[in-house]
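Supplementary Methods. Inverse-folding protocol.

Structures were first reduced to a discrete structure-token string of length 553. This string, shown here, constituted the complete conditioning input.
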């Protein structure tokens, strides 16, 4: 019996020592992390340098406050203040969004989600150029830490900022009323840029040398931010990737139509404007975000930025993007517009279902921002589109590349090239057009083919963080060149200044829109897929539907 007690005592003692050793190891590890204290007007913040990069990271700094309850659709309020140092270590703050438990299973969404993340190099240098990156996700999903720019910042050439903004109906329901004016999510973005302007000098960044960048919905965002009167003086250069302000998913064509459509999907039973507004103001978040809008056959997003009614308050967008550009009433910035050669691969997951539906009724896939006088006219155009891409063949395994081309062109490539044309015509002579088509052995084949192509936003991943142990030497070389382009553009407004090792990159002109091709080699070429973009130009010239502000009914 005594022997058993001694054995038990020895076991407990050993276990206790192991636990304390584990706690001590964690304590020592935490203490070993190098920290940096930054004093802001709101209060002091503390960031830490991790083991993965020679960069100080500040996560989860509140830049604004999201209104709650019945006012949850209004613009952002000022951020909080504090007196004790804020440990800026929470990387997992996300705004409420549909199916967050699927996309981000380890993170709980919160309304208190308007936070910025700041990444600064370990250097005594001040007034570094600033990159503000806006995440994509169709204005429906995502968060600032989806992609991280630590390796980009580790160059010691820049400071970088990412942030969250409200999403889906929470961020982009647009009814043109005092309580639901519209554009809450992109007004969050403006608030973040104002926060950067006021605070980034404390982090070693230059508030007068800010480049905004984004891909997909982030690309649309930066393209819209440059058109808004609310953003003057907040940034100096723009890098828009895989998204344009005139894209079918860029601005809501009819926000009231979208509000009614979505309300019916989440069990709204009313039939008038006032009851619709009351329904949205009183609905729970669980119900508000219960329906998925991620996949739309008409290539629109039900909840994206909108043209706002004049309510006597600050408006983000006062007219449709095309009209603003043509009017010339906006600030012209040096810009890089970029897309990939196979943007449409982002819808390859829908191919098995959509191929049959396309053969039976292609009108479902006509863009939402086209308007026809009759169903017969719409069907006629649908037949023309299908014939142009697929000829006399059915949409199927043998024509999967044509399926990719169709989606690439209608959602991304045509609107981006059209946006460039409009801007050049309005006097912007500092726009650089890029197509990213790099592939290597890690790039998957397009289903049913032996072809490879660059998927939606692949060019962004070539700039941001990666585990280098998983990359081919060719891809690492490409990453270095892509980063060189961004560094030089952020510094000078020219992606290939005189000291650049890369081919001279000509800006777009009225008679020529050269593309810099980023593949296994980097070379300048003529207009990308001109025949395909000309096809869409003819359609949009005749049938384009301009977005309207919300209206009462």
């Amino acid at each position: 019996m005594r022997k058993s007690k001694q054995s038990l005592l020895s076991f407990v003692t050993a276990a206790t020592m192991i636990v304390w050793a584990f706690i001590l190891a964690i304590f020592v590890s935490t203490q070993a992390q190098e920290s940096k204290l930054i004093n802001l007007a709101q209060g002091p913040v503390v960031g830490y340098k991790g083991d993965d990069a020679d960069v100080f990271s500040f996560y989860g700094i509140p830049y604004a406050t999201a209104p709650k309850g019945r006012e949850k659709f209004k613009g952002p309020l000022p951020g909080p203040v504090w007196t004790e140092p804020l440990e800026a270590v929470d990387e997992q703050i996300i705004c409420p969004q549909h199916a967050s438990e699927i996309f981000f299973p380890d993170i709980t969404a919160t309304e208190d989600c308007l936070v910025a993340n700041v990444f600064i190099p370990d250097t005594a240098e001040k007034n570094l150029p600033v990159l503000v990156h806006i995440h994509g996700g169709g204005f429906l999903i995502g968060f600032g830490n989806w992609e991280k720019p630590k390796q980009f910042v580790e160059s010691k050439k820049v400071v970088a900022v990412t942030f969250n903004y409200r999403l889906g109906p929470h961020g982009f329901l647009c009814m043109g009323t005092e309580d639901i004016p519209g554009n809450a999510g992109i007004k969050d973005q403006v608030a973040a840029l104002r926060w950067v302007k006021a605070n980034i000098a404390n982090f070693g960044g230059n508030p007068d040398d800010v480049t905004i960048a984004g891909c997909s919905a982030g690309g649309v965002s930066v393209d819209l931010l440059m058109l808004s009167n609310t953003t003057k003086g907040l940034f100096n250069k723009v890098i828009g990737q895989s998204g344009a302000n005139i894209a079918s998913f860029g601005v809501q064509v009819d926000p009231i139509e979208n509000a009614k459509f979505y309300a019916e999907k989440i069990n709204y039973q009313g039939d008038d404007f006032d009851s619709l507004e009351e329904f949205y103001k009183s609905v729970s978040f669980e119900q508000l975000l219960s329906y998925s809008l991620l996949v739309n056959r008409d290539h629109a997003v039900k909840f994206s930025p909108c043209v706002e009614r004049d309510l006597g308050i600050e408006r983000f967008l006062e007219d449709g993007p095309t009209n603003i550009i043509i009017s010339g009433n906006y600030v012209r910035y040096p810009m890089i517009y970029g897309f990939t050669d196979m943007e449409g691969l982002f819808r390859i997951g829908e191919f098995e279902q959509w191929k049959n539906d396309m053969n039976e009724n292609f009108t479902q896939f006509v863009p939402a921002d086209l308007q026809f006088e009759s169903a017969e006219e719409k069907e006629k155009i649908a037949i023309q589109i299908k014939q142009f891409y697929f000829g006399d063949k059915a949409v199927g395994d043998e024509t999967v590349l044509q399926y990719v081309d169709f989606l690439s062109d209608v959602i991304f490539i045509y609107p981006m090239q059209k946006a460039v044309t409009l801007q050049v015509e309005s006097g912007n002579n500092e726009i650089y057009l890029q197509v990213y088509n790099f592939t290597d052995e890690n790039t998957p084949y397009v289903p049913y083919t032996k072809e490879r192509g660059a998927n939606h936003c692949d060019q962004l991943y070539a700039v941001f963080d990666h585990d280098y142990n998983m990359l081919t030497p060719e891809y690492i070389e490409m990453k270095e060149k892509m980063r060189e382009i961004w560094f030089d553009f952020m510094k000078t407004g020219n992606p290939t200044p005189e000291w650049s090792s890369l081919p001279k990159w000509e800006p777009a002109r009225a008679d020529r829109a050269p593309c810099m091709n980023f593949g296994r080699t980097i070379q300048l070429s003529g207009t990308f897929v001109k025949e395909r973009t000309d096809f869409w130009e003819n359609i949009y010239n005749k049938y384009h539907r301009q977005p309207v502000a919300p209206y009462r009914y």
